[in-house]
Amino acid sequence: MSGFKKFLMQGNVIDLAVAVVIGAAFGAIVTSFVADLLTPLISAFGGLPDFSSLTLTVGQAQFKYGNFINALLSFLLIALVVYFLIVRPYTRYKERAAGRQETTHRECPECLSDIPKAAARCAHCCAEVTPV
Question: How many CB atoms neighbour CB 85 within 10 A?
């Protein structure tokens, strides 16, 4: 039982639990944003906010393709919101942060190992290099 307790108290398990809870809450926010704001906005221009009534009858079978269209549009809108509100800003932030990091090492032209910028000689192959 102590091994199970140790497993539960590890940092990565707790971090994962917090991420799941935050993800569920964020999912509710994005779903509400799509259902309550974007879908009515689309229906204002398109005219039909809910496609669930669309069906196709072939013989005795009835295909409710409107539900599929609703699910597909909901997925696309949620993906669009997540991309533009999370992925794109985070990618830009990471690019800026990577650009601000000052490089302290460079590559030796002889052996291609990493050496400090101010080095006059490579510590790996002893080749003379010009300091930067």
Answer: 13
Token pair of 123, please? 């510590």
2-101: CATH, from 3.30.420.10, 3.40.50.720, 1.10.760.10, 1.10.1200.120: 1.10.1200.120
Phi first, then psi, for residue 52 (nearest 5°) are -65, -20
Cα–Cα distance between 38 and 77 in angstroms, integer?
Answer: 8
Q: Model confidence over 60-98: pLDDT tens digits?
A: 999 988 888 878 887 888 888 888 888 899 989 988 887
Do 130 and 116 form a contact (C-beta atoms < 8 A)? Answer: no
| 3-class state of residue 116 by DSSP | strand
